[in-house]
Each structure stands twice: as C-alpha cells, then as structure tokens.
Specification:
Length: 201
C-alpha cells in the first residue's frame, strides 16, 4: 500500500474509483500534509439504550461515544491530515440544545487490505472491513482492539455493545446521508446516529 495516498484509498484499492465524488471528497486527504475538509450536517437522531447508558461515563472518558440523546442535532465536522503523520483525523462537534458543544475526536489508519481501524483515546480502536456499495461506503465491524506499542490486543467490547454497521450514501455531488448503528443479538439496537451532511469547503 502507498501510504502517501488517502487512508481510505489505501484500504479500498481499486474500489476507490467506484466511490461517488462526494465520498471521495470526504476522504480524499493525503496523509503527511496539512489538508483538511469541512462538513456541516444535521443528525436526525442520536440514541442509545439504557444498558449503554450505564457505560456512558467510561465510554466518554475513552472518547468513544456521544454521551447525549437528541433529534435534529446540528453537527460540524473537520477532517484533516497532519504533517509527519499517516492518519486521517476527525473532529466532530455536536450542538445539543442547552448543552456545551460536545467534541468527538478520532483518527483512522489503513490496517490491511479492505480494512481500516478508527482509534480514540488510550489506544482503543475498532476495526472495520470497508467496501463500496452503489457509490457509497459500507463499514462492517471486525472487533475492538487496544493498541499498546506495537501490539494490538483484542478487546471483548462487542459482547457488551454488539456489532457496528456504518453506511454513507451519496445524495448529490456535495451531500450524503450516513448512519451508524450498533446491534446486540440479545439487547437489540444499543446505539445509533444518522443524518445528512454536506461538504462545505
């Protein structure tokens, strides 16, 4: 893989060319640069189950989950690269009414053919298989890890939360819809958010 190519392109290989222009614009930043893209959108809903509610303080400490519920939540996103670093960085700011804006940060690396890993704090990451579907992007949960030095240690988070599924669907040359759902075989849907976003710069 060519690490100077966009992280998602490294993972998708030839499938990259099948992505709609808006999805390519979202993920097309070159690593090791100071490039960035800005998006604005609105989350139709942000929700989690009572079981996940018990884990929210720990998850928030790890920077791994949005700690509030809501509907029609404005969100601003900055994706960027950083000189000297191979990752793709996310800065998502949620504007829940009556609350201080919540910032959800993460970074993404290609960790294999057809695979990316998204990291939050303390080396906690979730591995995803990535494929193209009708010009959009689908990410399927491959399990959680904790990265300590050169070691990636599997973590049994799926047993508590369930399996994640993420999909981004192009709407126009500048807009797309996204959804992220976590479903547990016993507890049903444990976490979800969905909305529409536009690339603004």
């Amino acid at each position: 893989m060519n690490q100077t190519e966009p992280v998602l392109k490294q993972a998708l290989g030839a499938q990259w060319s099948l992505l709609a222009p808006v999805i390519q614009a979202h993920y097309g930043l070159s690593p090791f640069t100071d490039e960035q893209v800005r998006l604005k959108g609105n989350m139709d809903r942000v929700s989690y189950s009572p079981i996940v509610g018990l884990l929210i303080p720990l998850a928030t400490l790890a920077g791994a989950m949005v700690p509030y519920r809501g509907h029609n939540v404005p969100v601003e996103v900055v994706n960027r690269s950083i000189p000297g670093r191979p990752s793709y960085y996310w800065i998502r700011t949620f504007f829940f009414p009556g609350k201080k804006p919540f910032v959800f940060r993460s970074s993404m690396l290609c960790t294999g053919e057809g695979e990316i890993t998204e990291y939050v704090r303390f080396g906690l990451g979730i591995r995803f298989n990535v494929i193209v579907k009708n010009g959009g992007l689908v990410e399927k949960d491959l399990g959680y890890i904790c990265k300590i030095g050169k070691w990636s240690i599997p973590m049994p988070v799926n047993a508590m939360l369930g399996q994640s599924y993420v999909e981004e669907t192009p709407i126009s040359h500048v807009e797309y819809e996204m959804k992220w759902m976590i479903n547990h075989p016993l507890f049903g849907e444990t976490f979800a958010y969905s909305g529409r976003f536009a690339v603004v710069s």
